[in-house]
Design a protein that fits this description.
mainly alpha, about 0% strand
């Protein structure tokens, strides 16, 4: 059971999934993270949880978007965002004056998790794109991500593979980078399961949730407040009655929420099914990031910089979920 709200205010709060199992994270912050996860998922991105709490780096475009709107994204989303967004596009990049100001500022003046709000604001302000801001976010935090992966105990005996991955990245060998990362993801899951069985991989976790009756709707509802938010929107837009909405709320929405672990797990399962789903035939586009399609050469143009960053993001998300997945799947 996740920790309850403390009786007295404390400035301390969890900065990762592991800490959130023992420390309280306020509901409004979780609502923002959930909405950011929705925004990332709608743009085909896993949730990026690789920021360094002691050195928050946004990048110039992310800073510009963050400063373009001062009202809390949570309130805008719940009151206005569900109906429409800004119709007049704003400047997608900072002006020269903005760049000059940003270059003089040492700190990115955001609290941890606020960097996720940028993805929400891109939709409301019709500014930039999730691809653009997330690529920048990854590149700004590249050194931190690399240091975290090399320092992770699970990857200690596989540093040579990490060397190969980063050499491929530096040389822009995107396809080789992806093909080297996929097996390493499987090895990580075997560690989580305390198993040497090759069947214990990412698809094994997805299959277990599917076998337990989890459909995409249920996986999405692992996110904090997801079901309550969707029921409210359906009632406001008159797709269901308030009586129906209240009935679901009383039956389901008052159950114990899973907090940050639930949001992270939901994003992981969503993209595990995409990246590890079984593909029966070639597709028209041919650029999908899917392990089975790549093995059978059904995905011909998967080797892109964008796909590498997406897989890195999923890779880091998987490692973030270590304490949760070990609880669920570690063998005796």
């Amino acid at each position: 059971m996740l920790p309850s709200k403390p009786s007295t205010y404390t400035p301390q709060y969890p900065k990762n999934v592991r800490d959130s199992l023992f420390m309280y994270l306020r509901a409004s912050t979780l609502d923002n993270i959930r909405m950011a996860a929705w925004r990332y998922e709608s743009s085909n991105w896993p949730l990026p949880l690789y920021m360094n709490p002691q050195d928050i780096r946004l990048g110039r475009i992310n800073k510009h978007v963050r400063l373009s709107f001062t009202w809390e994204p949570f309130y805008y989303y719940t009151l206005v965002g569900m109906f429409k967004r800004t119709s007049k596009p704003k400047r997608p990049r900072p002006t020269l004056l903005s760049q000059l100001i940003f270059s003089l500022v040492k700190k990115d003046w955001v609290d941890y998790y606020e960097y996720l709000n940028v993805s929400i604001l891109t939709e409301y302000l019709n500014i930039s794109s999730v691809d653009e801001i997330t690529i920048e976010l990854f590149q700004e935090n590249f050194k931190h991500i690399k240091a975290c992966l090399y320092a992770n105990p699970i990857l200690k005996d596989r540093s040579q593979i990490l060397d190969d991955i980063y050499n491929c990245y530096r040389n822009k060998n995107w396809a080789a980078c992806i093909c080297t990362m996929y097996p390493l993801l499987d090895a990580i899951v075997r560690e989580f399961c305390s198993s040497v069985d090759f069947t214990k991989d990412v698809s094994f976790i997805s299959a277990n949730f599917k076998g337990a009756g989890f459909k995409p709707w249920d996986i999405d509802n692992l996110k904090h407040g997801a079901l309550a938010s969707k029921m409210t929107i359906l009632a406001i837009t008159k797709k269901i009655s308030w009586e129906e909405s209240n009935k679901v709320f009383k039956e389901k929405c008052q159950e114990k929420q899973l907090g940050l672990p639930g949001i992270a797990l939901s994003s992981f399962l969503t993209f595990a099914s995409k990246y590890y789903g079984y593909v029966r035939k070639e597709t028209k586009t041919g650029h999908e990031l899917n392990r089975h399609a790549i093995i059978h050469a059904a995905s011909k143009d998967y080797g892109t910089h964008l796909n590498v960053i997406k897989l890195f993001t999923f890779f880091f998300l998987t490692l973030e979920l270590e304490p949760v997945l070990k609880i669920l799947f570690a063998e005796e």
